[in-house]
Amino acid sequence: MPVISTAGLARTFQTKRGPVEAVRGIDLTVRPGEILGFLGPNGAGKTTTLRMLTTLLAPTGGAATVAGCDLARDPEGVRRKIGYVAQSGGTDPSVSVREELVTQGRMYRLGKAEAAARAEELAADLGLSELLDRKCGALSGGQRRRLDIAMGLTHRPVVLFLDEPTTGLDPGSRAELWDLIRRLRDGQGMTVFLTTHYLDEAEALADRLVVVDRGTVVAEGTAAALKAQYGGSPEATLQDAFIAITGRRTAEPDTAPIAV
Amino acid sequence: MSHLFSDTALIFGRYLRQALDSKVGVVFGLLQPMFYLIFFGPLLRDVPLGGEGDSWQTLVPGLLIQLGLFSAAFAGFGILLEKQVGVIERMRVTPVSRLALLLGRALKDVVLLLVQSLLLVLVAVALGLRAPVLGVVVGFLFVGLLTISLASLSYALAMRVDGPQGFAPVISTVNMPAMLLSGILLPMALAPGWLDAVSRCVPFRYLVDAVRAAYVGDFGWDTVGVGALVGLALCAVSMTVGTRVFRKAGA
């Protein structure tokens, strides 16, 4: 039983210059406990797909089930079961780490004491205990990323969506974050759905890759399988395979508006 | 629905704490009406203003509505900042009630505005305002009604626009004529026929007239009653618009 399955999931934006088909029809399945790497050039529809799967954006076509809940009929059920860490994070720089974690717990309907205890627990798990009473704005890039992930883990989600989790991090923080993501999967059997632009990250972290381009899935498989099938030789790099799949074109600007 | 109350309380608490943390914000919003009160109010003492009561009973109700008009209409600015750092989106992925995201914030604005109104009235009393206590209380109720309406509209607008450049000009363009046309500084009783007619199309005018009537102890249907009806209608429309925008995904 897949934890995510989509069929023809699509989103068309109405703009002044006519309709823009940001996502034309995504079919994919994600198995429980899998780390799925979601790749594609800029403007391929990655973020739009992610925003649909996390209930932020209503699809204009197709259907999807996430963690056993129908995306269109039961978005609230989906929200209760997923965690989402956006690229921009989502903490207020003027609020303390503790307050953000506790409030997040309360928004997931934990009681006051429960939310406070969960904040301590998450902080201990993610190495934030010393920072609980600092303002979020005073954290380093790596610390803030760990906080963003802690926020997404508050309610022990079945699936964690990560949008370009290591963009802007130094190599040390990046390696740390990879370890953390593996730990979540190995320890708790969590399913992780992550988008990334870094092919080394996709190769090191993901069990399986899904490549999208122009709003549809154009290839999927393990990194090794993609290299063999598209890279032309067993020694090919993932980059060779990626370029063969998506074409050697310069990245187009993202045509899909972020907020509609 | 069952979580609406607790979710609203949660959001209300979060933003009230933030607002009280920046004491500058509480005082800053008060500066403009306070200046009018202290530097402009005394000029009106012996000017015939066409209404009942003295000049303070005419000016202070106007300044209360002005305070609500300007502070509440700019409430959406906070959301613009939060959108930039992803706070709004992060909250929208949780099961928290969409209506609570709006109500909690708007109620915070009401509390803040009431505190500011109280300070304004206290200073006015020191300067010479005398008005029935019930009238002053009714005035606060109108400020609350106006605040929740305008704050909802302001939050809705802020959710829909891309940045401050799409927000501030809209608010300023609407607010300035709204302020002049509702007779905030001088009552519309002084206006020529055409101006009086135009001002009757501005809902805030009825609120100003109602509070002025309450400040001279007149709680009649044609003043406080009409003001209450207009205020409630404004509130109903604004809350409907606000709720719609907050319910819809994609913001």
Automatic annotation (TrEMBL), chain A:
<feature type="domain" description="ABC transporter">
    <location>
        <begin position="4"/>
        <end position="239"/>
    </location>
</feature>
<dbReference type="InterPro" id="IPR003439">
    <property type="entry name" value="ABC_transporter-like_ATP-bd"/>
</dbReference>
<protein>
    <submittedName>
        <fullName>ABC transporter ATP-binding subunit</fullName>
    </submittedName>
</protein>
<dbReference type="GO" id="GO:0046677">
    <property type="term" value="P:response to antibiotic"/>
</dbReference>
<dbReference type="InterPro" id="IPR027417">
    <property type="entry name" value="P-loop_NTPase"/>
</dbReference>
<keyword id="KW-0067">ATP-binding</keyword>
<keyword id="KW-0547">Nucleotide-binding</keyword>
<dbReference type="InterPro" id="IPR003593">
    <property type="entry name" value="AAA+_ATPase"/>
</dbReference>
<dbReference type="InterPro" id="IPR050763">
    <property type="entry name" value="ABC_transporter_ATP-binding"/>
</dbReference>
<dbReference type="GO" id="GO:0016887">
    <property type="term" value="F:ATP hydrolysis activity"/>
</dbReference>
<dbReference type="GO" id="GO:0005886">
    <property type="term" value="C:plasma membrane"/>
</dbReference>
<dbReference type="Pfam" id="PF00005">
    <property type="entry name" value="ABC_tran"/>
</dbReference>
<keyword id="KW-0813">Transport</keyword>
<keyword id="KW-0046">Antibiotic resistance</keyword>
<dbReference type="InterPro" id="IPR017871">
    <property type="entry name" value="ABC_transporter-like_CS"/>
</dbReference>
<dbReference type="GO" id="GO:0005524">
    <property type="term" value="F:ATP binding"/>
</dbReference>
UniProtKB/TrEMBL annotation, chain B:
<comment type="similarity">
    <text>Belongs to the ABC-2 integral membrane protein family.</text>
</comment>
<protein>
    <recommendedName>
        <fullName>Transport permease protein</fullName>
    </recommendedName>
</protein>
<dbReference type="InterPro" id="IPR047817">
    <property type="entry name" value="ABC2_TM_bact-type"/>
</dbReference>
<dbReference type="Pfam" id="PF01061">
    <property type="entry name" value="ABC2_membrane"/>
</dbReference>
<dbReference type="InterPro" id="IPR051784">
    <property type="entry name" value="Nod_factor_ABC_transporter"/>
</dbReference>
<feature type="domain" description="ABC transmembrane type-2">
    <location>
        <begin position="24"/>
        <end position="249"/>
    </location>
</feature>
<dbReference type="GO" id="GO:0140359">
    <property type="term" value="F:ABC-type transporter activity"/>
</dbReference>
<keyword id="KW-0812">Transmembrane</keyword>
<keyword id="KW-1003">Cell membrane</keyword>
<feature type="transmembrane region" description="Helical">
    <location>
        <begin position="63"/>
        <end position="81"/>
    </location>
</feature>
<keyword id="KW-0813">Transport</keyword>
<dbReference type="GO" id="GO:0046677">
    <property type="term" value="P:response to antibiotic"/>
</dbReference>
<keyword id="KW-0472">Membrane</keyword>
<keyword id="KW-1133">Transmembrane helix</keyword>
<dbReference type="InterPro" id="IPR013525">
    <property type="entry name" value="ABC2_TM"/>
</dbReference>
<feature type="transmembrane region" description="Helical">
    <location>
        <begin position="224"/>
        <end position="246"/>
    </location>
</feature>
<feature type="transmembrane region" description="Helical">
    <location>
        <begin position="133"/>
        <end position="158"/>
    </location>
</feature>
<keyword id="KW-0046">Antibiotic resistance</keyword>
<feature type="transmembrane region" description="Helical">
    <location>
        <begin position="170"/>
        <end position="190"/>
    </location>
</feature>
<feature type="transmembrane region" description="Helical">
    <location>
        <begin position="24"/>
        <end position="43"/>
    </location>
</feature>
<dbReference type="GO" id="GO:0043190">
    <property type="term" value="C:ATP-binding cassette (ABC) transporter complex"/>
</dbReference>
<dbReference type="InterPro" id="IPR000412">
    <property type="entry name" value="ABC_2_transport"/>
</dbReference>
